[in-house]
Amino acid sequence: MSITQDQVVSIHYTLADDAGEILDHSAEGAPLAYLHGRGNLIPGLERELTGKSAGDRLRVKIPPADGYGEYDAALVQRVPRRALKGVADLRVGMRVQAQTAQGARTVTVTHIIGDMITLDGNHPLAGKNLTFEVQVAEVRSATAEELSHGHVHGPGGHHH
Asked: Is the dihedral of CA 42, 47, 52, 55 positive or negative?
């Protein structure tokens, strides 16, 4: 069975940046399961997996536009520490929820200078080329419940 819209796909993967540093990987022995064509993976990786079958291996380089987007400097802002009241032990690298004009957004604390905090609303992988080593472990039809919920249930998915 090849990977098409609404198939449940299980993959083993390793994600590296341009320097070859491993950024993420599937759990040892436990593949990641996702519902294909529903936006559960970045667009470039879904496109590359379309048509593949169980047992296939691929190495793909995904540019930012097909990954987590280009880096947007407009998503970086400096705020006074009091804007993050209720966040104890604030430190660089910390991810916090912030209220923005677009609603709640997860941001990363990138600098703390005195009372001013710099927050970056970009995804941590925005602007980066992403190299995936993928092995397709399994492809199966989705259940009616998975289709109605838009994600996989059971091992490797939600609601275990």
From this structure: negative
CA torsion sign, 24 to 48 to 149 to 31? Answer: negative
pTM of whole model > 0.90?
Answer: no
Residue 39: CB partners within 8 Å, gap ≥ 6?
46
Predicted confidence (pLDDT) at residue 86 exceeds the cutoff of 50: yes
Query: Residue 116's pLDDT is what?
Result: 95
Q: Can you tell me the distance from the alpha carbon of 122 to that of 117, in angstroms, rounded to the nearest whole number?
A: 16
The answer to the question of residue 56 being in a domain is yes
Residues 117 and 90 sit within 8 Å (Cβ to Cβ): yes
> What domain count does the chain have?
2
CATH, residue 112? 2.40.10.330
Candidates 102, 20, 9; CA nearest to 56 is: 9
* Structural domain boundaries, residue 51: 7-68+126-149
